[in-house]
Specification:
single chain; alpha/beta; 5 helices; 7 strands; 31% helix; 23% strand; binds inosinic acid
């Protein structure tokens, strides 16, 4: 089965590739000739994931899935949430987003947060299915580590050993991450429909 992952983020593609069954031929947006930014103008993760998958289906006619992720910080009432990518402005710079979050949380006693991912799968018959995954953690006081992307250097998963996601290998992050958990639901579903 050929399935496009509707994301321009090469890090996400690297994370997801080893999680999918070998029966799935994973295509990137470049593979299907899509070079434009995908629209994500909805105000929920579910809405954005569906919007990106629908866009690829409408314009390229390829079965695909898209993800949308938000970092929900308790002390900020769930912000930046669905606006995580543009938290510090439209340039979507990870270093600016991280710096802003550390400023906002400075001196705050509650540093708990959740990463949440929604994956929307668009099947060749136009049917859409959603899968969700989450991981709880703490926002560190400073950046730690250089692997990963986005908020990884300041996110310390609760079920880890004190390291941030940016201090973990891809395999270690994939064992507990929000995205891997959402993709596990996707894989279970794909396994079922391939068997049918
Ligand atoms: P999106 O899903 O690409 O829209 O991601 C929203 C924001 O969350 C962006 O700033 C990403 O860099 C960040 N983000 C998404 N997934 C992760 C992750 O696994 N680790 C750290 N940051 C992430």
């Amino acid at each position: 089965m050929r399935l496009c992952f509707a994301s321009n983020n090469a890090h996400k593609l690297d994370e997801i590739r080893p999680l999918l069954p070998t029966s799935v031929e994973l295509l990137s947006l470049a593979d299907i000739g899509c070079e434009e930014e995908l629209p994500e103008t909805q105000d929920t993760l579910e809405g954005n994931a569906r919007q990106k998958a629908q866009y690829v289906w409408d314009h390229y006619g390829v079965a695909c899935f898209a993800d949308d992720t938000g970092l929900e910080v308790t002390a900020l009432n769930g912000a930046p949430g669905v606006y995580s990518a543009r938290y510090a402005g439209p340039q979507r710079l990870a270093s600016d987003n991280v710096a802003k979050l550390l400023r906002e949380l400075a001196g705050h006693p509650d540093r708990s947060a959740n990463f949440r991912t929604v994956v929307a799968l668009m099947l060749p018959d136009g049917e859409v299915h959603e899968f969700a995954g989450a991981v709880a953690g703490l926002i560190t006081e400073e950046v730690h580590g250089t692997d990963g992307f986005g908020y990884d250097p300041i996110f310390q998963p609760t079920e880890g050993d004190g390291r941030t996601f940016a201090q973990m290998s891809l395999e270690e992050k994939n064992a507990i991450s929000h995205r891997a958990r959402a993709v596990a639901g996707l894989v279970r579903y794909l396994d079922e429909i391939v068997k049918e």
